[in-house]
Amino acid sequence: MAVQFLLDFGLAVRQQREARGWSQELLAEHAGLNRCYIGEIERGQVVPSLLTLQKLAHAMQLRPTELMACGETIASRRHANQARLMAIAG
User: Fold this and answer.
1) What is the pLDDT of residues 32-85, one digit of tens each?
2) Please, which residues have CB within 8 angstroms of residue 89's CB and are 6 or more apart in sequence?
3) Domain 2-89 class, CATH top level
4) Gap between the Cα atoms of 40 and 84, Å rounded
5) Which of 53, 65, 76, 80 has the most CB atoms around its CB within 10 Å?
6) Of 58, 66, 59, 83, whose CA–CA distance to 9 is shortest?
7) Which residues in 20-50 are b (16+ Cβ under 10 Å) and which e?
């Protein structure tokens, strides 16, 4: 469950970054973070701190709660897709 949360959050960061046409390097520069760390976040390989969440959100002109909500939306869609597949299967 916790691992999936990290994957969903990482995907949210990636989607928000790509929506702006930014590279990982540009997001890292705006957020004051390392480019490799951005990649690790996007792949769900690390647990970012609250300070990192704030830096990422601020860099993309979002509130931290908005960035978290993006991750929740991804999780909700995944759950809905899984439910549809289960209904089709059986």
Assistant:
1) 999 999 999 999 999 999 999 999 999 999 999 999 998 888 877 887 777 777
2) none
3) mainly alpha
4) 31
5) 53
6) 66
7) eebebeebbebbebeeebbbbbbebeeebee
Q: Which residues contact 58 (CB under 8 A, 6 or more apart)?
A: 31
What is the rounded CA–CA span in Å between residue 84 and residue 82? 5
State the Cα–Cα distance between residues 38 and 48, nearest whole angstrom. Answer: 10
Residue-wise pLDDT for 2-21, tens only, equals: 888 999 999 999 999 999 99
Q: 72: which residues sit within 8 A by CB, 6+ positions away?
A: 8
- Looking at residue 34, what DSSP letter applies? -
